[in-house]
Predict the structure.
Amino acid sequence: MTSPTVITGDSEFLKFAFGKVCRHFLLAVAAASLAGCATKPLPTRTVAYVDLNRYLGKWYVIANIPYWLEQGKVASFDTYSMRPDGRMNNIFTFRKSSLDAPQTSWRGVAWVVNHESNAEWRVRFLWPFYSTYLVLALDPQYQWAVVATPGHKLLWVLARERHLDETTYSKILQLIAAQGYDTNRLHPVPQPATN
């Protein structure tokens, strides 16, 4: 078994991401100028409380409303671990386009911004850019979670196992729809048959 490739700040990821960021920044500016013409989505509601110690560990990406850096990624998962400074390591691991491709990992950092609920975080993979991470739904046994960004643009269905049963996934889709998300935008993320 080969060890995963770890991409750090001085790698080709930076060159790729910087070019994409510049293009997406210009698109975002154009989109913002048209935002006044669109209807506002429902406000996003988080869960009441997240026990961070229970949330830490590995979460497989079951489905997502993907963004440009996730396109073509399969067998993806996030691993969270607490750091001595109170922030969390966020390791995103994936294979590109094929379940047989080599594993690659991107190292990020996450930190809680709402300490009352622990359900609103900031996540950064490339300084100085960060994303807001909202925990919208969470299984009482911490076996699955739904996280998203504000504005209904991005969303992830996560689970402790690589696959969810159909009943659980249908329930999650209902929760997502109740928050105003278009579930037709969700894309399943291919995962290997076993953990």
